[in-house]
Design goal:
alpha/beta, Hypothetical Protein, Haloacid Dehalogenase-like Hydrolase, Chain: A, domain 2, 14 strands, 24% strand, globular, Cof
Length: 263
């Protein structure tokens, strides 16, 4: 095993479209860890919904969450790094969503806040191990130390949102993290920069880092890593940014890559 750090996206990469960790993938990730590689989950998810995935793998360690805006030690629950959104910069994004009745949530390192919660969205959050807190940010203000705003809408609605926002000047970055998700977060936050910071802390050169992902928010870590792999269900731009394309998340793509490395 030539890679000392293996960075894995979760949704669309590590788990399948049924949101399940497939047995072959779990076995391959654990085998890589047993050979000395540090497994780092790098995800757009919040910390609370990421740690159960690490537990399903039977591992402990560092997780990069909120698209790189937060780095947490799973053993101690200590926040090692976080990039906070200045409240005054985010209001126009929230107003845009309120006007169109797009659902959004506000994420701190461990909590997720919503302004409203219906049965459909409650079921979505339950599936990813999250219990939202209802908070009217219009009157109560943004939660302290908010790291990321996530907007959930139909693909066509988010396509329109992207076109509208392309005309804005931005002091925050907008990241398409899935067909149905758009994230707003600090300019400095990304999976790539978080992975780079962790590698420097560990004294690991980028040549000894493997990253596997599937969406636009993974491009930074795929290009930073010594070897970046896109799963087959990735958009073309993500595949083009990667060094290799493996099978899809429904075909044990992560396992195929790791088994090849393990010999």
């Amino acid at each position: 095993m030539n890679y000392r750090i293996i960075a894995l996206d979760v949704d669309g990469t590590l788990i399948d479209d049924h949101h399940e960790l497939r047995p072959r993938v779990r076995a391959a990730v654990r085998a890589a860890a047993e050979q000395g590689a540090e497994i780092v989950l790098c995800t757009g998810r919040g910390t609370t919904s990421t740690l159960p995935m690490l537990e399903q793998l039977g591992l402990e360690g560092t997780v990069v969450t909120h698209n790189g805006a937060c780095v947490v030690d799973s053993r101690t629950r200590e926040v090692l790094h976080q990039s906070v959104i200045p409240p005054e910069l985010v209001e126009r994004y929230l107003d845009y969503c309120r006007e169109r009745r797009y659902h959004f949530d506000m994420n701190t390192a461990f909590e997720l806040y919503v302004e409203s919660l219906d049965e459909t969205m409650a079921a979505v959050y339950k599936r990813i191990f999250v219990t939202p807190i209802v908070r009217d940010a219009k009157t109560e203000g943004l939660p302290d130390c908010t790291l990321k705003i996530s907007i959930f809408a139909l693909k066509e609605q988010l396509d329109e949102l992207e076109r509208d926002w392309a005309a804005w000047s931005h002091d925050l970055q907008t990241v398409r993290s899935g067909d149905f998700f758009m994230d707003v977060q600090p300019l400095a936050a990304s999976k790539g920069t978080a992975l780079e910071s962790l590698a420097k802390l560990r004294g690991v050169p980028r040549e000894q880092i493997l990253a596997i992902g599937n969406y636009y928010n993974d491009i930074g870590m795929l290009t930073y890593a010594g070897h970046g792999v896109a799963v087959a269900n990735s958009p073309d731009a993500v595949k083009e940014a990667a060094d290799e394309v493996t099978l899809s998340n429904n075909e044990d793509g992560v396992a195929v890559v790791l088994e090849k490395l393990l010999g």
